[in-house]
Structure formats: C-alpha cells, structure tokens
Amino acid sequence: MLSYAIRRVLGAIPTLFIIITLAFFMMRLAPGGPFDSERVLPPDIARNIAAAYDLDKPLYQQYFIYMERLLHGDFGPSYKIRDFTVTQLIANGFPVSMKLGLLAITLAFTLGTTLGIIAALRQNRSPDYSVMTLAMIGITIPAFVTAPLLQLVFGIYGVHLFGLDLSLPVGGWNDGATRNIILPVIVLALGPIAVIARITRGSMVEVLRSNFIRTARAKGLPTWRVITHHALHAGLLPLVSYLGPAIADIVSGSLIVEQIFGLPGIGRYFVQAALNRDYTLVLGVTIFYATLIITMNLLADLFYGVLDPRVRYE
Is residue 73 predicted with pLDDT exceeding 60? Predict the structure, then answer.
C-alpha cells in the first residue's frame, strides 16, 4: 500500500503542473486586468504598478517567475485585497469553509444513508418511490435556486410553529453562530443527500440479494441484525469512492452558497478574485482546491482497501 501511495503522489505532480499552467494562462486570456478601473490612471503610475507586480514583462517570463515563487511556497500577494498575501487569505477563509463543509457532509451522510436504506428495504413500494423522487428533485434543483428560496421562507417571511419563531438570518457569518450556519449547511447538504441516498439504495438492493444475506436470514437472525452486522458493511462500500471528492468539494467551500449567504470562506474569495482579475488569489485557491481533491481521492482509495480485504494494491 505504501508503494501505491507513493506512486499516486508522484503521479499527482504532473497533474498539478498542468492545472497550474492552464489556470495561469486562462486567467491572462480573460479580458481586463487587476488594476483596470473606470478612473484612468496616469501613464507613469500605471507603469510603476505593472512593474511592481511584474506585469510589464512578457507572459512567459511572468509564468516562470510565478512558478519559481511557487516552488518556494510563495503564492504571492493579493492584487486587490491590500496588505494580505494569498496564503493569509486562504488561511482565514478555510476554517469557515471547513466548518460548513464538515457539518454539511455529516448531515448528508447521516440522512442520505438512512433514506437509502429505507428505500432498499421497501423496494418498489411507496417509501422507495418517495425517497427516489425526493432524491431526483435534490439532484436536479441547483443551489442557486434552493438558497434564495430558503432565505425567502425562513428569513424574509419568517416561520412560526407552535408559537416558536423559527426565522433565521439570511446572511452573514457572526463568528459561526448556530443560527447563521443552519441555512448554508442545509443548502450545501441537499445535493449530497440525494446522491448518497441513490448510491446507498442501489448498493443495498444488490447486497440484500446476495447469498451471504440469504444465509444469515436462513439462520434465523433478526432483520435488524442482518442489516446492521452484514448488509451495511458491504452496502456502504461504494460510498467511499464518492465521499472522497465530495468532502473535498464541500469543505473547500461552495462558490455559490458562500457568495449568496455572504460567508467569508475561500469559495467567496475565489468568486470575487475571478471578477476582479486577482490573478494570484485565483491561482492560489485553484492550487489549494486541486491539491485537496487529489489528497481526498487518494485517502478514499486507501480507505477502500482497508474496508474491503479483496482489494489489493499491486
């Protein structure tokens, strides 16, 4: 397993190199620049600013300068957020995104697996159809639709139930207060809940038809013991491959959700940096995001081998 992990890490280096190169030149091809504004700067000041950030040099020289700094662990300064480096901005935004992401993936895994198991145990019956219908709705409706709807219902109109005020803030972080993170966590979790429910249902249906499950039932074991001690272990294995990139995606911060709810995570930094042509911040977040996805995929593959002894890394 160690040799497999080393090969995967070495294989990830060219992948990261390609991602960095593509992101660098694609950002430069986009119209506009980090210091363009409605107010035209005097030529001398514009030249001094370009020289200070090496933007006056040919594009290939800018690329090699950036790669040299990157090899020393320097993501550079932000072009638009004064007095902050890209490393500092990622360090400030990642705890926010990580808290939201971990809560969302925990909610998604708990609720998604529960619904998937219920659907599998009641295959081709009303609970199965209901769960799969809700899952399809959760997959097809994007976050930029569900987020404003929840803001409208729970924030603008307000919800009162049994004399309790269930209204929630429509935005802001407020140092991670519980009321402020409920709606973003729900929006982030809706899509993964639907996917996890479908994966769990399909896998559990297949496992419940396996010979070892028939043997367990023939021995007279209670249904709950057959499910918890035999079927779940094999039925949840396909989730491992999905959870790797899913965790990386959610923990890195949803670009849409953080922007809609005004949360200071790295997803919101990325959107603002792309709009403002903040080259270094966009590249820094892209590299961080790509590294996290590669790492989580590797951990998922290794964990899969631990859970399933039939898997061998040759």
Answer: yes
DSSP string, 180-239: HHHHHHHHHHHHHHHHHHHHHHHHHHHHHTSHHHHHHHHTT--HHHHIIIIIHHHHTHHH
Check pLDDT > 70 for residue 129: yes
pLDDT, one tens digit per residue, over 167-223 is 888 888 888 888 889 999 999 998 899 999 999 898 888 888 888 888 888 888 887
Predicted local confidence at residue 312, as pLDDT:
60
| Residues with Cβ within 8 Å of residue 292, at least 6 apart in sequence | 248, 251, 252
Nearest to 287 by CA among 7, 35, 66, 99: 66
- Give CATH superfamily name and number for 92-263: MetI-like (1.10.3720.10)
Q: How far apart are CA 295 and CA 251, in angstroms?
A: 13
Rounding to the nearest 10 degrees, give the CA dihedral for residues 87, 90, 91, 96: 170
**In the block, residue with structure tokens 């042509």:** 277
Say which amino acid occupies 223.
Answer: T
Across 10-31, average pLDDT: 88
- How far apart (Å, rounded) are the C-alpha atoms in residues 1 and 163? 58
Say if pTM beats, i.e. exceeds, 0.85. no
Q: d(Cα 46, Cα 212) in Å, to the nearest integer?
A: 73
- Per-residue pLDDT tens digits for 39-51: 666 777 777 777 8
Closest by CA position to 254, among listed 241, 242, 240, 266: 266
Polymer length in residues for the chain: 314
Quick one: which of 217, 210, 198, 216 has its CA closest to 234? Answer: 210
Contacts of 14 (CB under 8 A, 6+ apart): none
The three-state secondary structure class of 165 is: strand
